[in-house]
UniProtKB/TrEMBL annotation:
<dbReference type="InterPro" id="IPR036259">
    <property type="entry name" value="MFS_trans_sf"/>
</dbReference>
<dbReference type="GO" id="GO:0015872">
    <property type="term" value="P:dopamine transport"/>
</dbReference>
<feature type="transmembrane region" description="Helical">
    <location>
        <begin position="492"/>
        <end position="511"/>
    </location>
</feature>
<feature type="transmembrane region" description="Helical">
    <location>
        <begin position="462"/>
        <end position="486"/>
    </location>
</feature>
<keyword id="KW-0496">Mitochondrion</keyword>
<feature type="transmembrane region" description="Helical">
    <location>
        <begin position="21"/>
        <end position="42"/>
    </location>
</feature>
<dbReference type="GO" id="GO:0006811">
    <property type="term" value="P:monoatomic ion transport"/>
</dbReference>
<dbReference type="GO" id="GO:0051608">
    <property type="term" value="P:histamine transport"/>
</dbReference>
<comment type="similarity">
    <text>Belongs to the major facilitator (TC 2.A.1) superfamily. Organic cation transporter (TC 2.A.1.19) family.</text>
</comment>
<feature type="transmembrane region" description="Helical">
    <location>
        <begin position="154"/>
        <end position="171"/>
    </location>
</feature>
<dbReference type="InterPro" id="IPR005829">
    <property type="entry name" value="Sugar_transporter_CS"/>
</dbReference>
<dbReference type="InterPro" id="IPR004749">
    <property type="entry name" value="Orgcat_transp/SVOP"/>
</dbReference>
<keyword id="KW-1003">Cell membrane</keyword>
<feature type="transmembrane region" description="Helical">
    <location>
        <begin position="347"/>
        <end position="368"/>
    </location>
</feature>
<feature type="transmembrane region" description="Helical">
    <location>
        <begin position="237"/>
        <end position="258"/>
    </location>
</feature>
<feature type="transmembrane region" description="Helical">
    <location>
        <begin position="374"/>
        <end position="395"/>
    </location>
</feature>
<keyword id="KW-0325">Glycoprotein</keyword>
Length: 549
């Protein structure tokens, strides 16, 4: 019997059916990017805030003060005894009560004496000029609690990490579309709970769970798209990244129009419920059905694909079975048990980790420059658009491995040059750093494609999920690495980024080239892929086989 790819070629490798499914699933990239970068707007620092003296609210009401007048009395009193105090994180160690004078509230305060002030740390008594506009003002993530904002992003990345393992495994065992739909439902529900969380603990718990489900939607939709198109069309996985970038560019517009963090959170979460209608439009992956010995269902889907594409399958495709592909519950050992699988897995894990670490590090480095947050964020997303276009132009001509390696080398060299450029040429430093970001963005997008092409069908979703989990680990480490090393020397993080990128460029040259090669169905197929310098095995896609169908 012919291979699955030959059946798919007769049904249409990228016809009307695949284009519809592709467009529908690409919307997942937009919503995932919303959540991925949402902390920038959910956690905006309040423009101005000050610490209220105990009893200040009651005194303000009794004296008929406006909020501005209470602030003036509070900060004036503080600065009379300590001119360097800002009033953000400290207050006078006094209390105002019924005996306090409205005209001179410090007149009868025994703890106040010029020259020997007594100050106390602020404990939950902050007053914000824009209350509830961000999670910072909602949960008092300022002063000694400011590190909790970083924790909220780390928790989200931990959710991504957990989702990669749990839902990646579940999608290989129970089906792509089932896990995709359940993940969309969970993403939406958890997002709503986050918006109305009564305290920061509840916020963190459901932000973690939203990260778990969001990762399930993103990884599963990517695998579905990859598995329903022919080998010559798999670069459409790169186009999904364009929708991720579009989400990055749309997000500042949403944040600009919605003044509160709850509104932003709901706006980025509710669209997930719309994806539930995909139950009627997106079928299960026929490749996955074959590996689970569900040939009849796979055959029905293949006939539907052919019908929508205006094609007709030959009568001898009346039976589709799996004969030699062993079906088992995937585990990490399956990814490292054989030599080629082990090499691919370790290199891909490092590539994911490096791409995420450098990408997020460069984004944060370019973003801390002041100015208009909304405009700057939009421009930073627009910089990524040429990456996908460059990939689409080069990947079919030069293959996957060479652009993958060169993009890492470009990122590494650009980071190194930026580190040693003089500070008095800021435009040049920014330009070269932007070139580095473009390089690492290309590498980041190619690793998605290469990862899905180097694993067999029975392990593909689990393999992509597990390797990409290193991306989440890189995302957790990036802010700590950037800011701690920058405290030693501002450009030191760029030196580390440079080393990581160049090493990655060297390692990816050891991966096999997958241009024009059919997706492997079994571990044996992966082991037979050509080595970068060995005998080419592209003839595999032309041979007759009954290994899978």
């Amino acid at each position: 019997m012919p291979s699955f790819d030959e059946v798919l070629k007769e049904a249409g490798e990228f016809g009307r059916f695949q284009k519809r499914v592709f467009f529908l699933l690409c919307q997942t990239g937009v919503t995932f990017s919303f959540l991925f970068a949402s902390v920038v707007f959910l956690g905006q620092a309040p423009g101005s805030y000050w610490c209220r003296i105990p009893g200040g609210a009651e005194l303000s009401e009794r004296c008929n003060w406006s909020l501005q007048e209470e602030e003036n009395f509070t900060l004036l009193s503080l600065r009379l005894v300590n001119g360097s105090a800002s009033g953000h994180c400290e207050r006078l160690d006094i209390s105002w009560d019924a005996s306090t004078s409205c005209a001179s509230p410090l007149a009868h305060s025994p703890n106040v004496s010029v020259g020997s002030p007594r100050l106390a740390a602020c404990q939950g008594s902050w007053v914000y000029h824009q209350p509830h506009s961000s999670i910072v003002s909602e949960y008092n993530l300022v002063c000694g609690h400011s590190w909790m904002l970083d924790l909220s992003q780390a928790i989200l990345n931990l959710g991504f990490l957990a989702g990669a393992f749990t839902l990646g495994y579940a999608a290989d065992r129970y089906g792509r579309i089932l896990i995709y739909l359940l993940s969309c439902l969970g993403d939406g529900i958890c997002g709503i709970i986050v918006a109305f969380a009564p305290n920061f603990t509840v916020f963190l718990i459901f932000r973690f769970l939203q990260g778990v489900f969001a990762k399930g939607t993103w990884m599963t939709c990517y695998v579905i798209v990859t598995e329903i198109v022919g080998s010559s069309q798999r670069i459409i996985g790169i186009v999904i990244q364009i929708f991720f970038t579009l989400g990055i560019m749309i997000l500042p517009g949403i944040a600009y129009l919605l003044p509160t963090w709850q509104g932003i959170q709901l706006a980025i979460s509710l669209p997930n419920f719309l994806f539930l209608v995909y139950y009627w439009f997106v079928p299960e992956s026929p490749r996955w059905l074959l590996t689970r010995k569900k040939g009849e269902k796979a055959l029905k889907i293949m006939h539907d694909i052919a019908k929508h594409n205006g094609k007709y399958l030959s009568p001898h495709y009346s039976e589709i079975t799996v004969s030699n592909a062993e079906v088992s519950n995937p585990s990490f050992l399956d990814l490292v048990r054989t030599p080629q699988m082990r090499r691919n897995t370790l290199i891909l894990m490092y590539a994911w980790f490096t791409s995420a670490l450098i990408y997020q590090g460069l984004v944060m480095r370019l973003g801390i420059v002041g100015g208009n947050l909304y405009l700057d964020f939009f421009i930073s997303g627009a910089v990524e658009l040429p990456a996908a276009l460059l990939i689409l132009v080069t990947i079919d001509r030069f293959g996957r491995r060479l652009p993958f390696a060169i993009s890492n080398f470009v990122a590494g060299i650009a980071c190194l040059i930026t580190a040693f450029l003089p500070e008095d040429i800021p435009w040049l430093k920014t330009t070269v750093a932007t070139l580095g970001r473009l390089g690492i963005t290309i590498a980041f997008e190619i690793v998605y494609l290469v990862n899905s092409e180097l694993y067999p069908t029975i392990l593909r979703n689990f393999g992509v999920s597990l390797c990409s989990s290193l991306c989440d680990l890189g995302g957790i480490i990036a802010p700590f690495l950037l800011f701690r090393l920058a405290a030693v020397w501002l450009e030191l993080p760029l030196i580390i980024f440079s080393i990581l990128a160049v090493v990655c460029g060297i390692l990816v040259m050891l991966l096999p080239e997958t241009k024009g090669i059919s997706l492997p169905e079994t571990v044996e197929d992966v082991e037979q892929l050509s080595s970068p310098y060995g005998k080419c095995s592209k003839k595999r896609k032309h041979r007759d086989t009954n290994s899978y169908i």
